[in-house]
Design a protein that fits this description.
6 helices, acyltransferase activity, transferring groups other than amino-acyl groups, acyltransferase, alpha+beta, GNAT_dom, 152 residues, Acyl_CoA_acyltransferase, Bact_Acetyltransf
């Protein structure tokens, strides 16, 4: 692994990010890189880009996008007004898994949350991802809550 470069995604990166999101057992059922959905992803990216509390990150190695994650900075009143950093949509290129990229991405994400004044970093993970659960446990995250979702 050479020097990783973490940066804010641009509109030119959307196709690569969607491909990473779709290249996964669960993601393949939720995402599609089909041209028919390009406009949906472009609209979503425009919203993310316009929101100062969002950071869609791409991770490059030798100019190639090898990972992505999205940070959301959530101001709140609870925990004495602490801001939270939410980490979502973490993906690493299939051919680069097992190279410790996840550790590097989380170190960067946690430091970025700290730099934005967050007092807490949180994430959600699908119950069907036991390998991810072990990874998050190893990083010191605690499974302290049960998450619920309602599809609309």
């Amino acid at each position: 692994m050479s020097e990783l470069h973490f940066r804010r995604a641009t509109a030119a990166d959307v196709e690569a990010v969607v491909a990473l999101l779709a290249d996964d057992t669960l993601g393949s059922a939720r995402e599609s890189a089909s041209p028919e959905l390009a406009e949906c992803y472009s609209r979503a990216f425009a919203e993310i880009e316009a929101d100062p509390n969002q950071f869609l990150c791409v991770v490059e190695d030798n100019g190639c996008i090898v990972g992505t994650l999205q940070l959301t900075f959530i101001p709140g009143l609870s925990r004495q007004g602490a801001k939270r950093g939410q980490i979502e949509a973490v993906r690493i290129a299939r051919d680069r898994r097992g190279e410790k990229l996840g550790e590097a991405m989380f170190a960067w994400a946690i430091e970025t949350c700290r730099a934005h004044g967050c007092g807490l970093v949180q994430l959600t993970t699908d119950k069907a991802r036991p390998d991810a659960h072990r990874f998050y446990d190893r990083l010191g995250f605690e499974p302290s809550h049960i998450g619920y979702k309602l599809s609309l």
